[in-house]
Amino acid sequence: MAAVTSPETSPQPRVYFQTPAGTTEEPETPVRKQGRVTVKYDRKELRKRLNLEEWIIDQLTDLYDCEEEAIPELEIDVDELLDMPSDVERGARVKDLLVDCFKPTEDFISELLDKIRGMQKLSTPQKK
After folding, report:
1. 8-state DSSP, 70
2. Looking at the 3D structure of the chain, how many domains does it have?
C-alpha cells in the first residue's frame, strides 16, 4: 500500500511503501547452488597465457599496421611451439607464419621466444 503526502506538508509529493497489515516481511536470501568443478587449471598459468596472447595480438597489430580484426588469418599456437625441441625450430615456425608480413619480424620473434621460455603447455588435466 502506498501513501502520498499532501502538497501542503511537502513541496514535492513523496511515496511511502508500507507492508499490508498482518504480513511479516522477511528478507529473501538467494539460494546459491554449489557448482561442481570438473576440470581444474592452474590460474597462474592461464593468466600468463592470456597476457601472452594479448601481447601477441598487440604486436601483430603493429607488424601488420592494422586493426585486430584485419590481421591476416594466422594462428600462433603456443602449445605447438612449446612442443618443439629448440628455439631455432620455434623461431623458424613463427617466421613461416609471418611470411606475408613486410615489416621486420626478428624482434617480435625473439621477444616471443623469451616470453614462452619456461611456460607450461596447457593440457586438459584429468578429472578427479
Report:
1. G
2. 1
